[in-house]
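Example S7 (structure tokens).
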């Protein structure tokens, strides 16, 4: 048996997002977001589920924070709903929205937990979408104004700020693959939205520095590891394209102020251009204080003519899969973060999301014996430890998610929580994985 100890200052945390947990969509002066529209459109979300009630964290945040305190985490990552602050995206500030998050932030601080705030976790005010959404550069200006308002309201209280959650999802998943709100299927739109979000990120970081806001600022990209299934050059190239789409397309601009040229050419051949304006790339590549990585899975794949955007198809090689169909491939976490460090340097890295979806059952005594999720965490913690030991500046880990919640287009049936949400009563029941993580935090490590 070996003992894996984590550094004393390692930041353990959990993560959530506003639309996934808050509910109360018509309270506190909140305006509608694209997710209200999308989830209320028949056929978009499994089971017709919406975030109208979700986990009702808008009213139950104290209970959630008590769960965090009992878990012993140092930090909590949550997102601010832009339409609570600016119901129409721009214009008048809604004080009630700011007051709500002030209550959350103060309760976290009183519990000794560092708030880590995501500014954009997908709930774009619908009024802005009506004017073109992220395809329009005016949304960039609106975002920076919103960010500035929130920075000033909470200056000094927030340890970490994250501009965007998963720019790949905001752009391609939502505007090219059509799976998330607003649900378009257009390559050019995906490329444009990605670029505008990256510019918005850069301008927000600039504003943060200009205003002298305390704390750290970064962004979160979701990386996905793809490896070629064979040694054939076709397979290698196809896997490289798929990987670069998820990874370099976002990481290169953020750190180097460039896009991967081979993919720019690939998109151009399909009729899509990046709408770069003078100064954009310098703006995007603002120095950040940390990079957030969301990691869930990896895969193997091969060349297949006319398959998807990249002539690439995934090959099943026998991984266990979670109940959302994602391979359990913990070593890919190691490979991904090792690559991030080698390619992009010493910027501190936080895993801002990692976790697993399983179809949990509540037992008669209100427990959930989520053995597979607990194993998933254990295996990924082993890789975190390996990363730290090999010199990768991994500074923290946020489990996705504190509690079962509205899993976007999959609705409520897909559970990612370490706390079970009973959607009938809205009661919360910590699962075995919660107790496992609690023990790891309390002991500063675990035995393998
Ligand atoms: C990520 C999202 C998060 C959650 C997990 C499962 O893509 O950032 O909100 O839905 O996946």
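Recovered sequence:
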């Amino acid at each position: 048996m070996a003992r894996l100890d984590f550094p004393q200052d390692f930041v353990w945390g959990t993560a959530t997002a506003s639309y996934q947990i808050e509910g109360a969509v018509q309270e506190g002066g909140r305006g509608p977001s694209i997710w209200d529209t999308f989830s209320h459109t028949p056929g978009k979300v499994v089971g017709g589920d919406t975030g109208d009630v979700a986990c009702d964290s808008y009213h139950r945040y104290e209970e959630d924070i008590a769960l965090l305190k009992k878990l012993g985490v140092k930090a909590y990552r949550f997102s601010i709903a832009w339409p609570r602050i600016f119901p129409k995206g721009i214009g008048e500030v809604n004080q009630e929205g700011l007051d709500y998050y002030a209550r959350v932030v103060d309760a976290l601080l009183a519990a000794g937990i560092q708030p880590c705030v995501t500014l954009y976790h997908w709930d774009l005010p619908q009024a802005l979408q009506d004017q073109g959404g992220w395809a329009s550069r005016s949304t960039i200006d609106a975002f920076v104004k919103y960010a500035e308002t929130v920075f000033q309201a909470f200056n000094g209280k927030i340890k970490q700020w994250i501009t965007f959650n998963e720019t790949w999802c905001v752009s391609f998943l939502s505007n090219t693959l059509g799976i998330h709100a607003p649900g378009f299927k257009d390559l050019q739109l995906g490329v444009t939205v990605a670029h505008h979000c990256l510019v918005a990120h850069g301008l927000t970081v600039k504003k943060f520095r200009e205003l002298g806001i305390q704390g750290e600022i970064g962004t979160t990209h979701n990386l996905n590891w793809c490896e070629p299934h064979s040694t054939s050059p076709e397979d290698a190239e196809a896997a490289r394209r798929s990987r670069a789409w998820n990874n370099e397309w976002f990481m290169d601009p953020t750190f180097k102020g460039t896009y991967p040229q081979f993919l720019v050419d690939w998109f151009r051949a399909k009729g899509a251009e990046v709408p770069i304006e003078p100064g954009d790339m310098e703006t995007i590549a603002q120095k950040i204080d940390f990079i957030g990585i969301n990691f869930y899975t990896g895969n193997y794949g091969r060349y297949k003519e006319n398959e998807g955007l990249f002539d690439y198809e995934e090959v099943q090689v026998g991984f266990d899969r979670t109940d959302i169909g994602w391979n359990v491939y913990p070593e890919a976490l190691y490979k991904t973060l090792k690559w991030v460090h080698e390619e992009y340097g010493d910027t501190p890295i936080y895993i801002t999301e990692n976790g697993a979806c399983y179809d949990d059952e509540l037992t008669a005594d209100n427990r959930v014996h989520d053995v597979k999720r607990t194993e998933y965490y254990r295996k990924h913690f082993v890789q975190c430890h390996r990363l730290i030991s090999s010199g990768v500046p991994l500074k923290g880990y946020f489990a996705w998610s504190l509690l079962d919640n509205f899993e976007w287009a999959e609705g409520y049936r897909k559970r990612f929580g370490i706390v079970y949400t009973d959607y009938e009563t809205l009661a919360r029941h910590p699962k075995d994985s919660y107790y496992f993580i609690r023990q790891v935090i309390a002991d500063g490590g675990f035995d393998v």
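Notes on this example. The longest helix spans residues 187-211.
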